[in-house]
Specification:
The protein is mostly helical. It has six helices and four strands; from the N terminus they run H-H-H-E-E-H-E-E-H-H. The chain has a single domain, classed as Arc Repressor Mutant, subunit A, CATH 1.10.10.10.
């Protein structure tokens, strides 16, 4: 079965939503978030390092260091998180016994799969951290 959302994307989304609920712009430590969200610390630390490099979070060093949202939650799209942690999904590549389907050019299902992929992508591109909080 295909996974649309992987563990890293899910963890990133959960942490960003939690941070976005806080309207005070607090600095969040990975340790505190890991405990509150029940996300393993090493995973969350790596995810936050990636989000910092991508400009979604801003990091602060030191004893009272941590992370804050650098981007407005209205500008953090689920589609962008998927691309960061999973690459561009490709729902149209049909596999049969670990090989590309030999009937891909004549496949009757292919057109429908492309339509479904376009619909799913359009929905993912419209979802933001902010819209998930509403």
């Amino acid at each position: 079965m295909m996974k649309l959302i992987t563990r890293n994307t899910d963890y990133a989304l959960r942490a960003l939503c939690f941070m976005a609920k806080d309207k005070k712009g607090r600095v969040f430590s990975v340790t505190d978030l890991s405990r509150k969200l029940k996300i393993p610390h090493p995973f969350l630390r790596r995810i936050f390092q990636v989000l910092d490099k991508k400009g979604i979070l801003k990091s602060y060093k030191g004893r009272k260091g941590g992370f804050i949202l650098k981007q407005n939650p209205e500008n953090i799209f689920l589609w962008d998180l998927i691309k960061i942690f999973q690459g561009e999904p490709d729902l149209e590549e049909c596999f049969f016994k670990n090989r590309l389907c030999p009937d891909i050019r004549r496949c009757l299902l292919r057109k429908k799969l492309l339509e479904m992929e376009n619909y799913i992508v359009s929905q993912l591109k419209s979802l933001t951290v902010n819209s998930l909080l509403s």
